């Protein structure tokens, strides 16, 4: 069963916009991780009034479980600007859990160039980390049991829900 | 044939031996996956980590330059370790059998064999022989099949001409000896092109070729009338033990693709050729190097398509 989280996504985004505003002086390049992260990146990009287009990453080709689960048949193309060397990157995802997606995303980013820095911004940070990775900016934190999953629905009228098992 | 061999019990691609026996969805998935891989060809670091730790052996019992090279580049772009062997010059000349050679290499923990052989059916024979964790890609067996060539052709057609169901496609030349033509016809049929024509003298057509679902033309001009795609074949002189054509000059006069004969096709038709080209025999230099030609993009696309096939075969099974 699935239950909606009693938190409005726009409220979380307001908090993130406030927290991220000081970062604007470094002229950050916003990169969203497909799919939920890309939705959020687009909104943050607009709210922070950054003119340079967002990047998007589909980390399917960098996952660490390829030998086990194979290719994602719905893999999307990644779109990053031509040169990301020496750029300050703001990496955006919807939910941070194990940290493996972020590791894969960082591996992919480094194949495009050597950024000056990477900051991580997530809507929801939950327990269950398997790697030494944490968010620099997060909308909310939540503790869940291992068989529960946070899901962001969107891209219109985004909402968060908690499901009982991985679907 | 090969249906069971090419898929695992759960329906995942396991060996890639022939287009025949593959589901349409598999062909489409190859095209979609290859499309994703093309973006990395423009990047500074062209490698992806997917096949790190996998060993790919290019086992070519028959000569090849572009197929072997693009398989090698494709495997290396996916970070696999690649070994190239041309056994005609090593073990088999000392009397080792084909299966011995495969056994030896398998004992060195090879995950994937990319295999080319002058005899039809060898890829399937080896696929029947190897254990479950070893995979075979057929890179051309005799006159039977060359499925990755057909898929890179499909990819190129889709790239330049869009949806298959609207297209008229002509395959011109030595159909009889061509494993490429057989694989192309199966792929074009499976992907649902509007019409497939084969254009060749009777001496270069297999018996009952119509049963493959093609329209047969012996006149080049008539066959090319209005087609969107012209797929030329190489005249395989090395496979011709007797006189299939009166003379090379006469063949060129009747079936060689020139600017004049190409004028019968649609104005925006593309011209393809699997290579190597016999200039002045099946195609004029003017056409091969002209604005309709997509012969070089075919080669480039071969890398992404072969990456897609390797990644689909070597990836895990639990694709949810």
Describe this structure in words.
The complex is a heterodimer of chains A (167) and B (320). Chain A has one domain: Rossmann fold (3-Layer(aba) Sandwich), CATH 3.40.50. Chain A is built from 4 helices and 8 strands, in the order E-H-E-H-E-H-E-H-E-E-E-E. Chain A has helices at residues 9-20, 36-47, 66-69, 100-112, and strands at residues 2-4, 29-33, 55-57, 88-96, 117-126, 137-142, 149-153, 159-163. Chain A starts with a strand and ends with a strand. The model of chain A has no long low-confidence stretch (mean pLDDT 91). Chain B is of the alpha/beta class and 320 residues long. Chain B folds into 2 domains: 24-144 and 302-314, Rossmann fold, CATH 3.40.50; 148-299, Rossmann fold, CATH 3.40.50.1370. Chain B is 37% helix and 14% strand. Chain B contains 12 helices and 9 strands. Chain B has helices at residues 3-6, 24-38, 66-77, 98-106, 122-129, 147-161, 179-191, 220-224, 248-255, 259-262, 285-288, 295-314, and strands at residues 55-60, 81-85, 112-117, 135-141, 168-172, 195-199, 215-217, 229-232, 270-272. Chain B has a 5-stranded parallel sheet. In chain B, strands 2-1-3-4 form a 4-stranded parallel sheet, sandwiched between helices. In chain B, helix 2 (24-38) crosses helix 12 (295-314) and helix 6 packs across helix 7. The longest helix of chain B is centred in the last third of the chain and has 20 residues, at 295-314. The A-B interface holds A 61-62, 65-73, 75-78, 107, 111-113 and B 12, 29, 32-33, 35-36, 39-40, 43-45, 47-50, 311-312, 314-320.
